[in-house]
Write a structure and sequence with these properties.
Elements lengths: L3 E16 L15 H20 L5 E10 L5 E9 L9 E11 L2
Antiparallel strand pairs: 1-2, 1-4, 2-3
Length: 105
């Protein structure tokens, strides 16, 4: 990296198994703004689940929920997909190192 800046952060990660297609199915705060909004959200979730079943059912995968604090003191949470195989860790909570690189192309 010729001209750029990099910064390393330390954090923690929680490893878990999720159904991959469920990652696209989510509720938003506005889905709870009224009974009608909640009903529309439930219908959206139901339609998404039905499409998932039509494609051959749920596909499980492992993810790491990585948490760290940025330089301004803000909590940051990201997800890292680890694939369908069991990760090589003995525990479900591990340390994480996050590198951010800023550069011009």
């Amino acid at each position: 990296m010729e001209h750029g800046v990099s910064k390393d952060f330390e954090g923690e990660a929680r490893i878990g198994r999720v159904v991959k297609d469920f990652l696209r199915l989510s509720l938003k705060p506005e889905d709870f703004s009224s009974p009608v909004a909640l009903q529309m959200a439930i219908s959206r979730l139901y339609e998404g689940m039905m499409r998932m079943m039509e494609r051959g059912g749920p596909q499980p995968t492992y993810v790491a929920e990585v948490r760290f604090t940025d330089d301004m003191g803000n909590p940051v949470v990201i997800a890292v997909e680890l694939g369908p195989e069991t990760p090589p860790f003995s525990r479900d909570r591990v340390k994480a190192r996050i590198r951010v690189e800023l550069y011009e192309e």
